[in-house]
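User: Predict the full complex structure for these chains.
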Amino acid sequence: MRVVVASGKGGTGKTTLATALAQVAAETQAVRVLDCDVEAPNAALFLHPQWSSGAEVTRPVPRVDAERCTACGRCAEVCRFNALAVVGGAVLVFDDLCHGCGRCTWICPEQAIHEEPLTVGRIEAGWTPEGIDLAQGLLRIGQPMGLPVLRALKHWPPTTESASVSVSARPSPWIEIRDAPPGASCPVVETLRGADAVILVTEPTAFGLHDLRQVVGIVQELGLPAWVVINRDGIGQAPIDAYCAEQGLPIALRLPLERRLAEALARGQSLLAAAPEYRPAIRHLLERLRCEVSGA
Amino acid sequence: MKLAISMAGDTLEAAFDARFGRAPFFVLVDSESGEWTCLPNPALEADGGAGVRAAQFLASQGAQAVVSGAYGPKAWTTLHAAGLRTLLAPEGQDALIGRQLLDQFRAGALRAAEAASHDGHHGG
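Assistant: Here is the predicted structure of the two-chain assembly.
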């Protein structure tokens, strides 16, 4: 079963909940956590893994052989991202704009273009003390696009014969928890793709409700079953309950606003370390997902 | 000299638009004769790289200089590789129309952009 913890709004408690779910799940099953917030991964701050493997993530960018190029302009014409410009008899390549689709390389009548890998980030993976398999993507500073790193993370470890053996050897039931990036943009959609269930963490404020609506739109478009968790219950008056009722979204859990929790989390303690009394509620949420997600 | 001015409307009397890559129109005007034509900006709906696309377009239309309010780094690089002069409209005069900028160009009152004026935007 693949579960995404998303929120729309940053700082709502996605990682708090995702790591708590992972810790509870790890008591009875094999757990894998993917920290999909490649711009600022933070699940490791709460799960304290030992990094044991990793890999660079690259994306292909075009390079032009000036000897062969006739500056015909076909490459710039076919690039829908405007990553190439043919001016003054030469080709300019803007790596930041390139999505690596390969059209320019393919279309060049002189075969003057080849692709080279550009390092855009890395994957780090390891195990936590409680046996959780944790992997995170790290977008390199200055790189504008996180999707290549996110895609590499979702396919971690790279498929090899030994990896496919280890997948089939995973104990059943097996759960993957993806900690989504904030917002409701392409990386969030990519994180949701291929998931079986979604947990939407929100807070009862106007901002929380606004951003919840955005991400609910995506989740419904993708046809994924979703549950809502209200974090910092009591912080505001936004009508989250009414909205959830209207959308048919079950509210699975409420975590009250408590100063001691905020302090513990700020120190890098996990939710369950700071408030073990939430363990039964988190376990109940997990069981509910397991029962209600078909085929899980 | 063939001058391209980024515009909000499609005549020389229309309002200037300070954005380069996302201006709806470019007015292409001969600075000596005053003859002009208006061209819709083909980069207006671009997912990304609007400045790059607009710069290539203007180069292909034979423009030799551009007047706009700001240039992103990729637009600036492309315009310079194409040999176009990049000129800046005076700041703080929001209500300028195309003809006033033409007059200022003729009077030599427009400042050249020495480098990209902002960090650019990322689409998609």
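DSSP finds three helices and six strands in chain B.
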